[in-house]
Amino acid sequence: MSKKNKNGQKPTKEFVFQKKNYLFLFIGIVFIALGFILMSGGGSDDPEVFNPDIYSFRRIRLAPTLVLIGLGIQIYAILLNPNKKKD
Q1: Which of 16, 22, 32, 81 is deepest in the core (most CB within 10 A)?
Q2: What is the predicted pLDDT for the residue at 51?
Q3: Distance CA 31, CA 25 (A)
Q4: 38 close to 67: Cβ distance less than 8 angstroms
Q5: What is the pTM of this model?
Q6: Contact 31/70 with Cβ under 8 angstroms?
Q7: Rounded distance, CA 43 to CA 52, Å?
Q8: Would you tell me how many other CB atoms lie within 10 Å of the CB of residue 35?
Q9: Which of 35, 39, 22, 25 is nearest to 67 (CA)?
Q10: What is the pLDDT of residue 8?
Q11: Are 63 and 38 in contact (CB under 8 A)?
Q12: Which helix (H) or strand (E) holds 57?
């Protein structure tokens, strides 16, 4: 049961996140997904043959960087307070 205000009215229910938070959450998810997509592949069908493409710039530097940027955006989206007013 919810508590009543001083006026006797039930409090209005608000979401924890606003539209701006969800926008940044979605952008972060896109960065993370793109990073994992770029990280995939590079294997070889024959286990006896070595494929040096597994150590390419895309898989070693670019993809993990995109994943970390996406995680940073996720943290920012969670901590963002769109209702805070600037002085």
Answers
A1: 32
A2: 80
A3: 10
A4: no
A5: 0.76
A6: yes
A7: 9
A8: 20
A9: 35
A10: 67
A11: yes
A12: helix 57-57
